[in-house]
Write a structure and sequence with these properties.
The protein is α/β, with parallel strands linked by helices and 371 residues long. It is 39% helix and 17% strand. It folds into two domains: 311 residues, Rossmann fold; 54 residues, no CATH class. The protein is globular, with a radius of gyration of 21 Å. The C terminus is likely disordered.
Length: 371
């Protein structure tokens, strides 16, 4: 594919690593890659092993499936069990464990749960099933919120009465603030989320260097993208600078994507607070639908239990999401918790850190820990 090979150039990657090693000069740096997509690139391509040992990469709360608490999943299952309802969602959500099983379990017990590839697919499903109620279980950061927003606008324009959205879209900036305010974490910088930033831009991150004195570099998703982003962070730190920089300039702009932001603002409002798996309740960190779209709001249409469900004691997904521990340090990783039989969300999602370690790095990292 054109424009891929140059971002996976081995010689270039090694030259970048040599420059990182020179500038870091043996000083320990702990950098957080916020996005789950970055985590998978890091372990699929062995980037952590390429970097000098004094550069540590830890994982943040940027996996949209992983951060959904068990109680919200139970709410989705309760909606799916209503007679005549078709619950549509992305494939990653089906095996996520809740307090009363998963959506896959609910489907096995008779609920009509279907996989779609976009919210527009769910809207089409509603149009082709006029005697059924179709509920789209919406998840994701600002990356996927615009597609839900545009679908809502189309549902209103086409006057589709049997379609609604169970909104679980979250926002990245309050989660980063919760990480920065956590006494558990000591970071020197952030590798910023590329996909989210295509929507919101780079300007909204300015408070991180201004208030917390930490640099952030928005990164692409190819191996040399991430290595260059590490280099840019180390350059800032070695020079005593602190700023928002954009490595992903081929896609991300300072002001973001104005039409996408406008669609979100027309259809959604910020919730006073929202519970995140592992991070607890974070103020102003998620979206709900505006009052003008109450007709298409599943939380208005159905009785949603709203119960809080504690994570299983054995599961340490919360600590993984905060970067406090690595997945292989979890006491059930790779034994009681596997992709086939997951206990936590980080092992289920295609962007989960535990899934990345399990698929690409678990054997090498365990050997490293033993030695």
């Amino acid at each position: 594919m054109k424009f891929v090979d140059e971002y996976r150039d081995s010689d270039l990657a090694h030259r970048i690593v040599e420059e990182v090693d020179r500038l870091a000069a043996g000083k320990p740096y702990k950098l957080m890659e916020v996005c789950g997509g970055h985590t998978h690139t890091i372990y699929r391509h062995g980037i952590q092993q390429l970097l000098p040992g004094n550069i540590e990469l830890v994982h943040g709360p940027g996996c949209p499936v992983c951060v959904i608490p068990m109680g919200r999943l139970d709410d989705a299952i309760a909606i799916a069990r209503n007679p005549g309802v078709i619950l549509a969602t992305f494939g990653d959500m089906l095996r996520v464990p809740g307090g009363s099983g998963s959506l896959l379990d609910a489907r096995a017990q008779g609920a009509d749960v279907r996989i779609v590839y976009s919210p527009l697919d769910a809207l089409k499903l509603a149009s082709s099933n006029p005697h059924r109620e179709v509920v789209f279980l919406a998840i994701g950061f600002e990356t996927t919120a615009p597609s839900t927003a545009l679908t809502l606008l189309q549902a209103r324009q086409a006057d589709v009465p049997n379609f609604s959205v169970f909104c679980n879209h979250v926002t990245i900036l309050p989660a980063l603030k919760a990480i920065l305010d956590s006494p558990d974490m000591r970071l020197q910088g952030f590798i910023g989320p590329g996909h989210v930033s295509t929507v919101i831009g780079t300007d909204p991150y300015s408070w991180i260097p201004e208030r917390y004195g930490l640099p952030i570099v928005i990164s692409g998703f190819e191996p040399t993208d991430l290595l260059q982003s590490v280099l840019m962070l180390v350059q800032q730190l070695s020079e005593g600078r602190c700023a928002v920089e954009n490595q992903y300039g081929r896609v991300v702009r300072a002001g973001g994507n104005a039409p996408a932001i406008d669609a979100i603002r027309k259809t959604m409002r910020v919730r006073p607070q929202f519970e995140w798996r592992g991070l607890g309740f974070i103020p102003a960190s998620a979206f709900s639908l505006r009052a003008e779209f109450a007709r298409w709001d599943a939380e208005e249409r159905y009785a949603v239990p709203g119960h809080r469900v504690a994570d299983p004691r054995a599961c340490q997904c919360g600590e993984v999401l905060k970067g406090v521990i690595k997945p292989w340090e979890c006491r059930v990783f790779g034994t009681a918790c596997t992709p086939e039989r997951p206990i936590g969300t980080c092992m289920v999602s295609s962007e989960g850190a535990c899934a990345a370690y399990y698929n690409y790095g678990r054997h090498a990292l365990k050997a490293e820990a033993v030695s």
